[in-house]
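Good day; I would like, with your permission, to put a structural problem before you. A protein sequence and the structure tokens that stand for its backbone fold form the material at issue. I would ask you to consider whether the tokens describe a fold that such a sequence might reasonably adopt. I set the record out below, with my sincere thanks for your time.
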Amino acid sequence: MLKTAPIAMIAAFASLAACSGTPEERVAVPRADAGASQRISYGSVSLREVSLPTYAASEDIYISGPEGKIIPGEGLLWADEPGRAITLELTRYLAQITGARVASEPWPFLDRPDAEVELRVEEMLAYADGTFRMSGQYFVAPENGRDRARLFALSVPIGGTFSAQDIAAARGSVMRQLAGEIARNGLR
């Protein structure tokens, strides 16, 4: 039953794609509390704009179908350009978790940041099995100290009825997990 609902939603998205004139629906990722705080070794952190795969950088909300094909939900669009939105979302969560001064580039302050973080996403996709997955690599380059590079692979269940809002909530959950991962393992 769990797998039937997501597959039915993918079929509905595909049938919507076949219809012309489907009105656009923009979907925002809901804000949530970042969770537990984490002490880090830096007072200020700069985040470069997040690098996304081509499909994930698009305004369209993409879904991986049962045969592995990546298809857009016709008329279902992210509320903001994904690279910009994810960069700002990760910046907000890192600031909440660490209590540090965190800002995305271009760095808005006169003094240089103590560390720079770069995130390169390899995969960011809702799957027919009812999960949202994100994987890639992040890099931490401190002003003083050793550089770090870490791989990550995160997955969360997509709740509800696999609607666009449910996918957006899952994306937000993955971003909170990633911010915690970077704070714990990259910025300490």
